[in-house]
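Hello Y.,

Per our agreement to keep a running log of every chain we model this quarter, I'm adding this entry. I've kept the format consistent with earlier entries: sequence first, then predicted structure.
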Amino acid sequence: MLKPGATIGILGGGQLGRMLAIAAQQLGLKVHIYSPDKDSCAFDVVHAFTCAAYEDEAALGRFAGSVDVITYEFENVPAKTAAFLAKRKQVMPNPRVLEITQDRLIEKNFISELKIGTAPYASVHSASQLAAGIEKVGLPAVLKTKQLGYDGKGQAKIAKGVDANAAWRSLKNEPCILEGFVNFEREVSVIAARSADGKVECFEVTENEHRDHILHLSKVPAKVSPALAAEARKIATKIAKAFDYVGVLAVEMFVVRAGKKQTVLVNEIAPRVHNSGHWTIDGATVSQFEQHIRAVAGWPLAKPVRLGRVEMTNLIGTEANEAQHWLTVPGASLHLYGKKDPRPGRKMGHVTRVFGK
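Predicted structure for the entry above:
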């Protein structure tokens, strides 16, 4: 268990690292950020930072020597980097989780082995496998690169009558996974925290709306039945336990209908704090960021209590330039990430609105 004044090392310097650092400071803990991006917005709010490549073993060694425990803010930190650091300091969640979640096919197989439902899927490493995959999952379908895809990047939709090989060529014929199209009623997520002693605390199920493959709006509570909400939390808890996870993770799910019954299918796992959990900063008695810091510090988790009906809106690109009007909206809290370049598709901040219960 870390004592106040100890230092948490965080790999990655984006807005998630920034908000983790702020949460740590509120608990009397210091943060050292490691990021290769000289414009990392998390650098502005931390005790120390290192700007170096993830492959720079000398810099990584110095970083490890300056902190008490290490975590990460996003899942595309190279697994080799996490493994190198794990030989020198405890890394949480375990780097094995990165190896699983960085590959969409391995992740889908992991979920399926837990007897948890997903969209139908198939591995695509060749044109013949693509044809066999289409035969298996049907069309329309989505072809996704196995690695390094988020916010709609690295994927192509294949509709009936469309040249499937052209879609694969658009992804540079990289190893892919083909996922059958899911006719879902809504998209939801569960943010779960697990401590080293195995205790799990889930936030309420969040309903999410996307624009251009980027999260636009999160609403809590989600419009799902109590039974479905319980099922979603049970799935997130099962995944966290199977990973022997320490920290916060997000499980993204589709709500689908089978006859008169609703159920959920897991879409993706994010082994980190998540955009759909930003509402917890202002809308709950503990935020997802504080829960993650508590977990990696070896401190007890809090039991989250929602403070009202909550909506979180992302500010994308130039939307941040017009954000000041939110300062006059009752019940609204504005969070800007300090990023300099409001390019299209870039998450620049968010607004949380808390309404009466």
